Amino acid sequence: MKLFITLISGGKDSLLSHNILNKRDDFECVALAHIAPPNSSLRNKGPQKGPQIGPQKGTSTPTPDSDSFMYQSCCSNLVPSIASLLNKPLYVYFSDLKTEQTELQYLPSSAKDEVEDLYSLLSSVVSRHPSAVAVCVGAIFSTYQRTRVESVCQRLGLQVYAPLWRTPQAEVLEMIAERGIVARLVKVCSAGLTARHLMKTTSELRQHFASLNSRFGFHVAGEGGEYETICFEHPDYSGNLELHDHTTHSDADES
């Protein structure tokens, strides 16, 4: 049995990958790891910087997210509730999300890069779960993301599993629907998507995504950063994720 850690954002890619790997007879998830943005409401629940062990309770009101080359930060405050539904221990690291290196290949040279925050997080998780031998990630086509996770895991002696790697994006959306995952859009940043598409599911928007793809090459699975999601229903959840209240934030509000 291979014990693994899932890098979780709460979005469709990380949770679909988790489901794929966790359903294999020879794999078992022992912990969840999450990089939280500096403005996350979770900061009120624990230390300002560094790993924090669940169980944790977040608010149901999303906070404006911070941009990152590596991590989804939107609705980070919902991740503890997702971890509770998955019945897995959650480890959180609050990151400033700073990037020192933007080249495709990554060389660990600066403790200030957000990649090194992932190293600190996984190092802490492994110290508490020394039997873990692998990390599950939701990377699909991002070599930038995968090489950085591989750099961290290589230094910690961990294997990297990316079940969705190089899967055609339309197939990813099909897998989400087939497995009963309900992923709702919580962030949109592309032509053709507006606030009215927020909280709609990827299944509801598949035809719209296909239309945008034919018009200007829109990435239907959001691989170009067109949108981000949170999974409200999932076959591994013990119940459904409930959102009792929410606010909408626009970059235009800051101008």
List keywords for this structure.
255 residues; alpha/beta; 6-stranded mixed sheet; two-stranded antiparallel ribbon; 27% helix; globular
Outline the structure in words:
It is a single chain. This protein is of the alpha/beta class and about 260 residues long. It has 6 helices and 8 strands, in the order E-H-E-E-H-E-H-E-H-E-H-E-H-E. The chain has a 6-stranded mixed sheet with strand order 3-4-2-1-5-6, with helices on both faces. A two-stranded antiparallel ribbon has the order 7-8. Strand 5, helix 4 (about 145-155) and strand 6 (about 160) form a beta-alpha-beta unit. Helix 3 (about 115-130) packs across helix 4. The longest helix is centred in the middle third of the chain and has 15 residues, at about 115-130. The chain is globular, with a radius of gyration of 17 Å. The chain starts with a strand and ends in a 22-residue tail after the last strand. About 40% of the residues are buried. Residues about 45-50 and about 55-65 have low confidence and may be disordered.
